[in-house]
Fold each of these.
Amino acid sequence: MNVAILTNIIKETDSNWRFIFESPLFDSINFVPGQLVQLCAKPGMEDSIVRNYSVASWPDGTNKFELIITYLEGGAMSDYLFKEAKVGDEFVYRGPMGIFTLPETIDRDIFFVSTGSGISPFRSMVNWIAENGIETQNVKLFFGTRKEKDICYYEEMKLIQSIFPNFEFIPVLSREEWKGKTGYVHEHYLDLIDNMKQKPLVYFCGWDRMISEGRKHLSERGFEMTKDIRVEIFG
């Protein structure tokens, strides 16, 4: 287990907050974009809490990492982070670890599909690709949420879109009319897939129901797990 100090809390949206941690025992943290950490709050106490979270930052040569966490009413960890945690608090963590990562060679389009804080691993991957000039086909990030005020990393994604020509950020709102896409996130990437000659590689991260629905839609279109679909479930 490694030590992590909470160094900043950023209220990204009402229900999604960013928590920045520093690992003082290391000069830098090396990991693969898309991996997760197992975070322990109140370590050593009887009521310690352990949860897994995808890392929302990317390897940048520092000893810091970022998590974006959705508030879940009654959830022990989110209650603690949103209501009690403060800058300077000490946590312990294991990782980063996991295999929810990019292929070694990106030889077809990639669709990232997320809801809420499920955007975490995709933010990591997209920034890593953009900063390192990784050669890709088209990369599209679909983000489903209720209202415009709930869109995570909106300005950052628009900036990356302006400098990364193969990248497109596609937020989809289910409870509000606006200038962009509306309805449910599935219909928008399926519309594209139904008109493509080659299957994209589709990554899902978010609530179990969203992922189950997405896998069903893609299975009906001949997509196969691992080969064409990769998933990370957080609830």
Amino acid sequence: LRPPALDELGLVPALESHVRALSESVGVPIRIEAEPLEVALSRQAELALYRIAQEATSNAVRHAEPSRVTIRLRGAGHGVELEVEDDGRGFHVDQVISTDDGGLGLFGMQERAAYVGGSVDITSRREGGSRGTARIPTDGGGIG
């Protein structure tokens, strides 16, 4: 399902609305740093980026006990890069992905990106927070 805010407001305002509500409900500051995008995103790419950001921020506030979360959105070559970073307690990415249910959110983010020709990389350090980076191409030519 597509959130109405994406069509009514656009990607960045829809993300801002979502993180404002999430931040208020959990008490963790979530900041968005968005550069003006010089590329047009398909409806599918917008939805993938929105859902990836939604899952990554939700995972951070539920599991990492962060004092802050930052979302960065910027143009990157022939596409868009979305980064979600927290300063909470990290985790072992391979270990979480290999569990029966622990990696469903991470797997879902990777599947959403792959559906629109992109990818998601996740890095984490046990006491240094986590970073998820989604790269979504806009012209089918990949991210440069």
Amino acid sequence: MEPLRRAVACHCLPQPIRRAIHAAVEFGATGIQFNARQELRPTDLSDSGRRQLRHDLEIEGLTISSLAFPTRRSLFDPDQIEPRISGLKQTLEFAYQLQVPIVVARVGAIPSDKDSVDYKLLVSVLSDIARHGNRVGTTLALTPTRDSAADLKELISKITEGLVGINFDPAVFAMCGRDAVAAFRELHQHVLHVTARDGVRDIDGSGQEVVLGRGDVDWSELIALLTEADYRGWLTVDRNNSEDATRDAERALAYLKNVTHGE
């Protein structure tokens, strides 16, 4: 099996993109994730600009691990749903032009009632996006939002007209008091991308993100499972709500290198 590939989210390196690319390499990453709504928007780059970006990355030995498409509302919220879905489709096309196979996005909490209008709308939206992804050659990977592995697996099973996968974020499960390793066991066939974050469940029932390796995620076991599952995607370090996200990202990349035995 090929060594697990380590990337870092660009927002953890708050500086101009070219400097962020250089910093990612200095930290030991071989990939970088861009936010397609704030850092690297489809409208920001001409064809020549996209070629130049690919050239700059190639010189540094860096690959775009994925594009992130953050939204304030769930994918099935009817308020301004058309612009939101249109923007996501445009990002899928943009990713293909940059030779990036994965776009990650949060779907919002999956409706508990499978017969509800919201749930049916969510399935319809994801089916539409999956068909579009098939046409343009890029795949959407859903980031969980406090959902169980069983609910995520059932939702994915209902998308039959194209591929939609999972962006596995173990911190989400840890912060909900769920076993991240057990969740991966259940979802591994659908995992297309892994966000390397950690978290703990607080005594009051809320969750808190913490520095990678200091939370409830058993990273040694999770890495072993990734290897066992022949996972060929990226481990993208991300850090939110941190006083020093850059330093935390650097430490996280070093931690992943150590836990993967330097691979």
Amino acid sequence: RPGANDDALGTAGVLELARVLKAGPPLERTLVFAVWTAEESGLLGSEAYAVDPIYPLEKTVANLTLDIMQTAGLAHDVILVGEGQSELEDDLERAAAKQDRVVTPENLPENGLFFRADHFSVARRGVPVLLIMGIAGGSDLVDGGRAAGDRWIADYIANCYHQTCDEWDPDWDLAGAVQDIELFRTIVEDLGNSGRWPEWKAGSEYKAIRDASADARRAVD
């Protein structure tokens, strides 16, 4: 399991975001960049951070997580994991519109990806989260449409997901992965230079946790 896509590509995206944002004008808010170990063993790395974070989770505005990236090229859309959870979905929609893209809900919700990736360690403690994971649903690819996106997922899961062939491939088209990383840059810069606190939506089971921590935060402030 060399892990070239799962999750070296996501790690590369985090590092590139850190490089670009560090080189630009300082944001008004603090950013924390992190990569986690032992996700497949029960989110152990991200859970360790959630238990003992650098900054209190009640003062953490949001968590953005990059996981598996699709390697099939440019897409007309971005796949949303966990529809109906938080206002970060609206941030994603605005950022996607700047790329002339739309947001499409995951079409494989039965895989439960919202509850399996590293962002969940802070989500269940009330921090609004946004996850990009290439296997959440077939993208509407510029070259081949939704059928090609579905085919990419089927091929990756059948042949390389958690298997030894998850290696770098010269045939990868990373343009779509770059699109998604740039979406996160847009969202980070917007939140980082604002006073907004994205909220969980009314139907989310995590809203009450965030509301309680917000009350505690205001009491301290």
